[in-house]
Design brief:
Elements: H1 2-32, H2 39-61, H3 66-91, H4 101-123, E1 138-141, E2 150-153, H5 154-176, H6 178-188, H7 190-195, H8 200-226, H9 232-236, H10 240-246, H11 251-271, H12 273-276, H13 280-295
Antiparallel strand pairs: 1-2
Helix pairs in contact: 1-5, 1-6, 1-8, 1-11, 2-3, 2-4, 2-8, 3-8, 5-6, 5-8, 6-8, 10-11, 10-13, 11-13
Length: 309
């Protein structure tokens, strides 16, 4: 029982990280109605910025404080992501208002490749380290309930808590603020939103800035766990099944979908992996997403699309 609970907790903590990355996809889709294939590149670019700024700031200022370096590098990386968001809206999205979804999709693919190349040009292509002070030692919990307690990785626990707080804040932002309601209106119909006075360009800048901050936090956490390298872009794309499972338009769906995928991956690898030769964790999420596409294409919490003719 204790081993099962350890695996379950590990899956829940991994699921919160998946939910955080998936949230970036949902944010862009809710504002523009297009799937943002640049989200993985944004996570990579933000993580590279955070890692390199944390190295450069002590050299520039002469202050050898980890806390100061992390706070300053986070502020600089967030500012850089805001600038990137503004440039994307100014140079790309502004010229594609009311265009077909396929056009916007191709635009995000172009943005993804450009950001990957730009990140390598500015920050380098080596493997970098992010040290945000999260303890990496395991800890035993619930000693009084289970003999020996449950083994939990502190870094995974802190990362899951950070992701949970950010996800909760963004959920409140979407549901309770006027800007969040405007984002939903823009996603439903660009022309109708403009006709009632919603500034489409400003909304797109806001949502890309928020998605940039989400990418930065996700990049920090994944970079701290795995190191900052170009495989982070593909790690972020592992959140694709989460979006399909939860629904492209649902913030709660991204959360629930992330938890389901995280738990499913861990449990299937531990209990089914020995029977199929291992490696099930790599493809489990995609097979589950495929099943949902066949049965419920809009996902668990997605809105059913009805075309009236």
């Amino acid at each position: 029982m204790a081993f099962f609970l350890e695996t379950l907790l590990g899956g829940l903590m991994a699921g919160m990280l998946y939910a955080l990355v998936a949230l970036g996809f949902v944010l862009i889709f809710k504002a523009s109605g297009v799937f943002n294939f640049a989200q993985g590149a944004m996570v990579l670019f933000a993580a590279l910025a955070m890692a390199r700024f944390s190295e450069w700031i002590p050299q520039w200022t002469g202050i050898n404080s980890l806390l100061f370096a992390n706070v300053a590098s986070f502020a600089m990386a967030a500012t850089l992501m805001f600038v990137v968001a503004w440039l994307i809206e100014r140079l790309v999205l502004r010229h594609l208002v009311n265009q077909e979804g396929a056009t916007l999709l191709m635009a995000t693919l172009g943005i993804a490749y450009f950001m990957e190349g730009l990140g390598q040009t500015i920050f380098g292509g080596s493997i970098y380290k992010i040290d945000i002070g999260m303890p990496k030692d395991p800890v035993f919990i619930l000693d009084s309930v289970f003999p020996g307690g449950l083994l939990v990785n502190k870094e995974d626990l802190y990362a899951a808590l950070i992701a949970a707080v950010l996800v909760a804040l963004l959920s409140v932002f979407f549901q309770k603020t006027a800007t969040g309601r405007a984002l939903r209106a823009v996603a439903d119909d660009h022309q109708a939103a403009q006709s009632i006075g919603i500034p489409l360009n400003r909304i797109w800048v806001i949502v890309w800035c928020v998605a940039g901050v989400v990418a930065l936090v996700a990049g920090m956490i994944w970079g701290s766990k795995l190191g900052v390298q170009f495989s982070l872009a593909t790690v972020a794309l592992r959140a694709l099944p989460v979006v399909i499972l939860g629904g492209l338009t649902s913030v709660p769906g991204a959360i629930i979908g992330g938890l389901i995928i995280g738990v499913g991956e861990k449990l299937s690898e531990v209990y089914l992996g020995p029977f199929v030769g291992g490696g099930i964790e790599i493809w489990f999420a995609y097979v589950l997403a495929l099943c949902f596409l066949l049965i419920r294409p809009q996902g668990l919490f997605g809105e059913k699309i009805i075309d009236r003719v």
